[in-house]
Amino acid sequence: MMTDENRRDIVTYRIEKANNSLTEAQRNLNFGMYNVAANRLYYAFYYAASALLVSIKIEAHTHSGVQSMIHLHFIKTGLLSEDDGILMRRLFVMRQETDYEDFIDRTQDDIEEILPETTNLVKKIQNLIKL
Fold first, then answer.
1. How is the chain split into domains, by residue range?
2. 118 with 46: CB under 8 angstroms?
């Protein structure tokens, strides 16, 4: 069983990873590494979302589990918007395609469009965390 102290430590660690992933996405964008930037943007969302779930004592052990729980507990309840849910799905699909499909390469425009949206979503998620 996870103690409150362990929970706080995990949430803090995952938020740090989310913020680091945003920084890595920006750096990869600057270096023209758009596929890596897409991956880091998805993980920025994923780490923040998993921190949020841990903060409310919900554990999801898969990517689809994290997305489902965020949708159920935050999008359906209005704490996050439908647009946030659409962005969440876009990030997931972008990462899946970029990491696993042949002949899919992200562009500078792809990353420049979604980077500020992802940054805002990560901030919204962080603001929902109450420990």
1. 4-128
2. no
Round to whole Å and give the CA distance between 12 and 54. 10
Looking at residue 131, its pLDDT comes to 76
> 34-55 vs 4-30: helix axis angle to the nearest 10?
160
Question: C-alpha dihedral over 62, 67, 72, 74, to 10 degrees?
Answer: 130
pTM of the model: 0.95
Homologous superfamily of domain range 4-128: Nucleotidyltransferases  domain 2 (1.20.120.330)
Alpha helices in the chain (DSSP H): 4-30, 34-55, 63-70, 82-100, 108-128
User: Residue ranges of the chain with pLDDT lower than 50?
Assistant: none
Whole-angstrom distance, CA of residue 8 vs CA of residue 51: 9
Written as six digits, the tokens of 42 are 């998805």
Q: Token pair 């918007």 is at which residue?
A: 81
In the chain, count H helices and then E strands: 5, 0
